[in-house]
């Protein structure tokens, strides 16, 4: 029986992928094999010795101590692309809210007083202060062309916008999905200089912190709109407030509540709604549940943020999964330990990613306990697991 600890409410559709005859799932599970979470901050949580994997039902993993888990040989899974449509729709909505001054106009009307005839008269007299502009022909700059960024770029093209993108690490898969009409920027500064709207779809790391700051704003077009549905720290709030006050920026739309900007008349702040649709929550939970199950039952790894992709078909033998430091002669030492125990290797897969390597080995008979102990004793081995 595998034990799964949930640190947030996880979609029922996702949990249904973990059959109850093999999985004990709940918020009070002790000695868990897996932790499932959404936004729960794990950084101050003790890591149970029993833990084999962590899975976040979402894309970003800033709330998970990835480095600590990596050093323990524990993979961290996420759900890239599962919430992409939900975020894409909110970015499009954000552009429309900003360029048509919809929030300001709505707030104006809801504070009018009088009978209906008086309201209509006041509304007609006041509407000129909310004149906006249309999207076709405007340029959208997309920084980060992963699952979400590509969908945003393609949708903006369908709306008649010019689109320019920047992502020095774009994958082949994303490039295939991206509209051929999307132009390539050579740098962030190049993109900012050409864009009427700018949207971010990148993780918050050292190189993306305060990507939008006083200096970068100076290089932007006058009257540009910034949309941040990625991570709060990517944008310097004070720099944005100053630029809005002097008219350099037209509007700022984001998904992260803060006191510095929430009352500004040119700012629209939403309560972190990016992935808050039933479909996105279901999709994320289903994806990570299926990934966790394949890892626990077969040793396979899909969509891990710290381990390599590793998938090997099951054979009729006994499977061993080994996580170790990515150093020379690891496979040789693993093979030697198995040969010494008269274990014949049926199949073997070895993959690496940065400082971590992961090996799946199928052997022809049951692996003795002392062999597992010898594998664990190899310098650099972080984790050894028999797949039942």
Describe what is shown at a glance:
The protein has 388 residues and is α/β, with parallel strands linked by helices. 32% of the residues lie in helices and 21% in strands.
Question: Which terms would index this structure?
Answer:
388 residues, alpha/beta, Rossmann fold, Alpha-Beta Plaits, 3 domains, 7-stranded parallel β-sheet, 5-stranded parallel β-sheet
Radius of gyration: 25 Å
- The percent range for helix content is 25-40%
**What is the CATH architecture descriptor of the largest domain?**
3-Layer(aba) Sandwich
Shape: elongated
How many discrete domains? 3
- Count of DSSP strands: 16
SS class? alpha/beta
The average pLDDT value, as a whole number, equals 95
User: How many strands, which pairing sense, and closed or not: the largest β-sheet?
Assistant: 7 strands, parallel
Query: What is the assigned CATH homologous superfamily of the largest domain?
Result: NAD(P)-binding Rossmann-like Domain
Tell me the name of the CATH class of the largest domain: Alpha Beta
Neighbour order of strands in the largest sheet: 8-7-6-9-10-11-12
